[in-house]
Amino acid sequence: MNYDLFTGEHEQFRRQVSRFLAEKVTPFAPEWEMKREIPRSIWGEMGRVGFLGFCYDQAYGGVGADELFRIVMAQELALCGAPGFGISVTAHNDMSTTYINLLGNHEQKLRWLTPCIAGEKVCAIAVTEPGAGSDVAGIATRAEKKGDQYIINGQKTFITNGYYGDLLVTAVKTDLKATPPYKGISLIVIEKGTPGVSARKLEKIGGHISDTAEIFFEDVEVPANHLLGQEGMGFFAIMTNFQLERLIAGILCVEIAGWILDKTMDHAKQRIAFGKPIGKFQVIRHKLADMATAIELNRALGYQCANQFSRRVDVTMEISMFKASASEMVNRVVYDATQILGGYGYMAEYEVAKLYPDLRAVTIAGGTTEIMKDIISRLMGI
Ligand SMILES: Cc1cc2nc3c(=O)[nH]c(=O)nc-3n(C[C@H](O)[C@H](O)[C@H](O)COP(=O)(O)OP(=O)(O)OC[C@H]3O[C@@H](n4cnc5c(N)ncnc54)[C@H](O)[C@@H]3O)c2cc1C
Question: Looking at the whole model, is its pTM more than 0.70?
């Protein structure tokens, strides 16, 4: 279906991204997956061709592109055959540097945003803690102001780009007495390598290309001018940026589901059982039809959200619906696809099978399905 969402410029950008990923990422993804690391050089290459931070101001190296370019980038990342790579890039582009852009002053942007746009530095957002994930207001990492410094103590976990990345946009409590508690949350940029910061790489069941880390802060001294915006603004900024994060997550899910469907269709046409292609069995054909319908429904909602979001309309409820729906949908699609593939669907050398564990994360990260439903029902007035 043609949704008339993208202009010729978006489509030109799509072709550039697609070509780049086909040449520089897809062929090497299996090797990076084994090494569980993205080579640093690829970030620099992406920066040089303008694929990082393109929505930000020219003064810092961006081109001031509209938000729909983020959607195009996410769609192409979804198709590059390495979801973990897409997660790392979107964590940098859409989930962490966004705070520096939104709240940072000129000096902070020159110091951090410019190298992030150039691909010289990799950025992460560190909110989740061992004791607080969905309940962001429950974080315990403490930043105590002493003179012109903050002394930071605490722990973060499940942080994408947290091991190999350079900058941590970190949610901390600057005011323990604030009521309600979320008003005591602030965002501080912590540079990796600062004494007292250490990280442990976590072993996941999928998405191995992207690194995910547990991070410890022990009496970390950070200059007070690393605070983004004002004290107490952190929670509001996080809730605001969650909309972009969840929109991008949903877009990735829809495109990956479409890719899985294509591969499954090919198999269903070629695999012969009882004298005919398995796609000729009604039960299989109907499963494929259900998948295609679910994908198209989600795509329509996603495009509608993207359209409104890019016009700065508040679509929190619809984006929450989209994130919940698309992430659950892609998990159903990969489940049905692996069933249609039979034994091949369980073999790690098959592309669709490999996605099975990768996709398990999408109903959890960036806000669980239950939290999305909570937001939706609250906005419904229940
Ligand atoms: C691959 C991956 C990458 C990630 N990357 C990052 C990152 O870069 N930065 C970052 O800060 N975090 C990151 N996260 C963390 C992620 O955002 C959290 O895991 C997520 O928000 C859930 O928090 P939790 O794990 O603490 O689960 P919990 O909050 O403990 O939830 C456990 C279960 O309880 C349910 N639950 C909780 N509260 C409610 C409620 N009110 N009503 C109903 N059910 C509820 C949840 O839905 C879930 O099923 C990542 C996670 C993964 C898996």
Answer: yes
